[in-house]
Amino acid sequence: MNNLINLILTRRSVRSFNETPISEKDLELIVSAGLEAPSGMGRRTWKFTVVTNSTQIQKLAAAVGEVLSRENYTFYKPTALIIPSNLKESRWGQEDNACALQNIFLASHALGIGSVWINQLKDICDHEKIRPILNSFEIPEDHTLSGIAALGYPKEKIEPVKRNSPTHFVR
Fold first, then answer.
1. What is the pTM of this model?
2. pLDDT tens for residues 111-156?
3. CATH code for the part of the protein at 23-152
4. In sequence order, which residues have a C-beta less than 8 Å from that of residue 104 and are 6 or more positions away?
5. Which residues contact 57 (CB under 8 A, 6 or more apart)?
6. Where do the domains of the chain lie?
7. Percent of all residues in the chain with a pLDDT value above 90, rounded to a whole number
């Protein structure tokens, strides 16, 4: 089977990470895969922010948990976050970021790194408890988030899952 097809078919969300840090080289490679994603009219109005400081990751997770009333929220304790942000005025910003995240997830999987989509910030990134943290990460005020990639090495082996096939061919 083609390697790319195999990666697509075997990637799964990981919600339990060990504490092994991801190398900067691997994180740079993963971000470069995100940067190669399609972008509406090729505008590429995004910015990618990589956070590897566990205290900062948990500070953001705790603020999200507080705003959403989710006690002990942790983003599953990843060792890294990749945060694609995009201009609020970008017509295709959310879609662009989704395409970038998919590339990030597949590149992570290719390197044996687990990932999970964190989508809780979509509607709260400008909340008074969230925006100062994003500002400290140098995410521009005129940017919004539609998803975050939480990354880390899986604590346990992820088993394949049989998926339904809601496909209908018209011939």
1. 0.93
2. 999 999 999 998 999 999 999 999 999 999 999 998 999 999 999 8
3. 3.40.109.10
4. 30, 31, 33, 34, 82, 84, 115, 149
5. 51, 75, 78, 80, 81
6. 23-152
7. 78
Name, in order, each residue with C-beta under 8 angstroms of 111's C-beta and a sequence gap of 6 or more.
26, 29, 30
d(CA 171, CA 163) in angstroms, rounded, equals 24
Alpha-helical (H) ranges within the chain are 3-10, 24-35, 54-67, 93-110, 131-136
Euclidean distance between CA atoms 115 and 17, whole angstroms: 9
pLDDT at 160 over 80: no
For helices 24-35 and 93-110, angle between their N-to-C axes, nearest 10 degrees? 140
Q: Which two tokens stand for residue 136?
A: 């400290």
Residue 107: both structure tokens together: 């590149």
